[in-house]
Each structure stands twice: as C-alpha cells, then as structure tokens.
C-alpha cells in the first residue's frame, strides 16, 4: 500500500521517527493534498496538553496532513470527522459497534476505557492558519503502562486485550483512510450538521454528570449535547455552559 489511493489521498509510510506530527510539519511543503504519514516507531510521540504518548510496537501511529485549511472554526471540526472515521474503521474490523463510543473532544473508547486518541495541531504562517495535522494513536496490540493517571482519567486499553482480535497498523489504515475520506467529503458538502448528528449518536455519557477541566477552571454538569460549533454543552446549577476546549472526566 503506497502512493495514491482511489480516494486521492497520499500515503507516506515511515520507519522510526520522533513523531509523525513532526514529520508532517517538516514535509507539508512537499504535499499538494491530504496525505497520511505513518511510522512503525515514534521516539518522542506527544499527546494532548503536552503529555507524552507511549507507542508500543504493533499500535497504530499516524498523522493525516490537511494542507490549505485556512478556517480555524472548520479545522476544529476535524476532531469529529476523525473520531467518526476511527469508530467506523473499528466497527468494520470488529463487527462490534456496541463496544465503541466517542468521548468529547478527541477520544475513542472501547468498553468504556480509552482505546484511541486524536491530537489536532494547526500549521500557521505569520499568525494565519495554513493547514492542519491530525495525529492519531490507536492501541491495537497493547495498552501502554498508564503511569500516573490524573484523578478520574480513563485507563488505556488495547483492541487485542479487550477483544482478542489481531489488527495490524496497515490493516487499520486500510479501513481508516477511506472512512475518513467519506466523512471529510460529507463535512465539505453538507457542513457540520450531519457530522454532529452522527457523532452524538455514538457519544459516551450523554445525560450523565461529567466534569470538564479547563485551564484554571473546572465545570461539573449534565452533558446535554454538542452545539453547532462543536462545543460541549453542560447544564450546571448556574445555567447552561458551552465549552470550547478542555478535558472531560466521568
Ligand atoms: O489522546 C491524546 O492525548 C492524543 C494522542 C495522539 C497520539 C498520536 S500517535 C501519532 C501522532 N504522533 C504523535 O506524536 N502523536 C500522535
């Protein structure tokens, strides 16, 4: 599997790298359109909020580069298309849709624990958005040692550990890439509304009490919905709050 796929995305499979996100930043100038970059091993993979991301062999590590995205609001919606594509790929490969759920803003859960994470990073020039890189890690073969988890954080699990199914990173990308291309085409053609509906149908903990941790603040409330901008909407004793970015704890 290399070069171009039928859906027109490029593909760059790499061996050991610091991070596929670093490779994306270094190589975006050579790319004319959306391109997947994968690595067999990352020596300095990163997760959200500057956390390290452990990447044992056999797990999926990839970055999708979307050059020429210049609207920040629509770029952020790729959290949702990416999560839906991951969910679709996992459902296709396992036949078990009921086992997976989506956690706002960027995680895929398996049996209620964290299976996959997504990290969006902006590419900018002179303060303007010029593109987006979407880093994706999926614990296919093994779950990393959770180390010291924040209170309330979900422990990682692996697809192999939870289901006994063996899926290689290459097989995973074969399912993920066309799924992403379809969700991306839908977003471009119809806007966020159908993506939002599809995401909500797969969301974990709607109607339940959750806590959103923001820099310097913590908001607890009932998870009502995700609004038209992709913000998390919580009902709190002080009224409804729409949260643009943060970490959610159950
Ligand atoms: O849940 C998170 O914190 C997001 C994790 C994202 C990890 C992936 S692995 C491939 C890509 N390269 C990185 O350095 N990080 C992302």
Automatic annotation (TrEMBL):
InterPro entries: aa-tRNA-synth_II/BPL/LPL, Biotin_CoA_COase_ligase, BPL_C, BPL_LPL_catalytic, Transcriptional_repressor_C. GO terms for molecular function: ATP binding; biotin--[biotin carboxyl-carrier protein] ligase activity. Transmembrane segments: none annotated. Keywords: ATP-binding, Biotin, Ligase, Nucleotide-binding. It catalyses: biotin + L-lysyl-[protein] + ATP = N(6)-biotinyl-L-lysyl-[protein] + AMP + diphosphate + H(+). Its EC number is 6.3.4.15. Residues 1-188 form the BPL/LPL catalytic domain. The keyword Transmembrane helix does not apply. One of its GO terms (cellular component) is cytoplasm. This is biotin--[biotin carboxyl-carrier protein] ligase. It comes from Maritimibacter alkaliphilus HTCC2654.
